[in-house]
């Protein structure tokens, strides 16, 4: 079997087009929303993502502001700075780029961001809305994954879906969304004993760990759809969790890294920003 690569950039462009139209309408009505990103330190994957967010925002005409802080700052200092930043009435979206340095209390930082501009949906209040189904925006990476399936006309209802990685950015929120859509979800983390078996059973396999070659060809069901949201770097080159060559020999469809989930995640973040701007009117 010879699988096909999913063109994430093409899907992202569709989302950016509809986001740009919404933004143009807002500007016509006197609303000029802004997305702000807080970057602490120089984590390679974080810098990469922030740069792409800025480029995409510029492409659609969305004001983008980057606030950079030294990696040695304290939680208290960063909270004070966030409170200053989010006083801007035009601010429609604010994110703290993860991961934050170890000395910073990540939960405190995420919960300092006002829920109405928390476009990453990482505050406790916004996660609780996701749990009960009252959210009006979707976390960007899970939203990107659902956008891929929608673009491919693939319904998850009644399907066996395995998600590898139970983190707050991908696994946990995606499992909630998938369950609500009628999928039979297996959520695997480092304590799961039979992860490989659960992967082989899944018609849709999603991974978001950040470990090169975590998913090999013998872990994939023939004809499966593989969506790779993991990011790892080796010798200054970006990789996902999935061994692409082996996956393409077994699966029907596979997202590449780069050029798969990443661009769509950025597009979903900008879409969330515009939706938040509309809700603030």
UniProtKB/TrEMBL annotation:
Pathway(s) where this gene product acts: One-carbon metabolism; tetrahydrofolate interconversion
Binding site for NADP(+): 165-167, 231
GO molecular function: methenyltetrahydrofolate cyclohydrolase activity; methylenetetrahydrofolate dehydrogenase (NADP+) activity
Reaction(s) catalysed by this chain's protein: (6R)-5,10-methylene-5,6,7,8-tetrahydrofolate + NADP(+) = (6R)-5,10-methenyltetrahydrofolate + NADPH; (6R)-5,10-methenyltetrahydrofolate + H2O = (6R)-10-formyltetrahydrofolate + H(+)
CDD domains hit by this protein: NAD_bind_m-THF_DH_Cyclohyd (cd01080)
GO biological process, one term: purine nucleotide biosynthetic process
Tetrahydrofolate dehydrogenase/cyclohydrolase NAD(P)-binding domain mapped to chain residues: 139-280
Family label: Belongs to the tetrahydrofolate dehydrogenase/cyclohydrolase family.
HAMAP family listed in its UniProt record: THF_DHG_CYH
Protein name stated in the entry: Bifunctional protein FolD
Lineage: Bacteria, Candidatus Magasanikiibacteriota
